[in-house]
Write a structure and sequence with these properties.
Low-confidence stretches: 22-26, 31-36
Distance between the termini: 100 Å
Strand order of the largest sheet: 2-3-4-6-5
Number of helices: 7
Helix content: 40-55%
């Protein structure tokens, strides 16, 4: 009897160990994030936003010469009027447009001398990243998304559109001395404003000889 009892106890212990190792728990937010990653299509969302909201609203971009003049005169008011941001930090995003002459073509960008002001700015042509394009219009509501991963993936997909569709045809033909017209997004730091180093992420860019 004792032998049977021991075997029974051993069997129960083995079953308990196997059951314990077969059951595990995940945090609810991890489960939701995994489920959302399967359900949410960032590429489709970005394509729709690009076609239906971003491009149709490019006419609302502020001229870059005008923006820098306003910022120099009253930065606080200009940020409050023209910038967009989803957080409470110092980074703000503007939708801008401009026209100028290419003064140099570099590995990662082109340098442009703006018409009228002759201010030198750069237009990114290689490394397109960050949230400037997503946030510059103020047309995306973070409450549409279940988690920040989906939200950030939209930025990645919008940047991919620029790298794959906007820039290649422009880079094939552009030359130093060309006059270009551009519309795009600019990121500026409200607390540490530097107007001497403005980089535009282009959403639309056209070059003319």
């Amino acid at each position: 009897m004792k032998a049977k009892a021991v075997k029974y106890i051993v069997a129960v212990v083995i079953i308990a160990v196997v059951a314990y190792n077969s059951v595990y728990f995940k945090k609810l937010d991890e489960v939701k994030a995994a489920r959302s990653a399967k359900d949410f299509n960032a590429d489709a969302y970005a394509q729709t936003f690009w076609s239906n909201k971003l491009i149709p609203n490019l006419n609302k971009a502020i001229d870059l010469n005008q923006l820098t003049a306003l910022l120099s005169n009253d930065a606080e008011k200009t940020f409050n009027t023209y910038s967009h941001a989803l957080g409470i930090g110092n980074l703000r995003y503007f939708l801008v447009k401009g026209k100028g002459t290419i003064t140099s073509i570099n590995e990662d960008d082109i340098a442009v001398s703006l018409d009228s002001s002759k201010q030198s700015i750069t237009v990114a042509t290689e490394y397109i990243f960050g949230n400037a394009v997503r946030d510059a219009t103020g047309l995306i509501n973070i409450n549409e998304f279940n988690n920040t991963m989906d939200f950030n993936n939209v930025s990645a997909e919008l940047n991919k559109i620029i790298r794959q569709k906007v820039l290649p045809p422009f880079k094939q033909k552009v030359k130093k001395g060309n006059i270009i017209e551009f519309t795009g997004a600019v990121e500026l730091n409200k607390e540490h404003l530097d107007l001497s180093n403005i980089e535009v992420i282009p959403v639309r860019i056209i070059g003319n000889e």
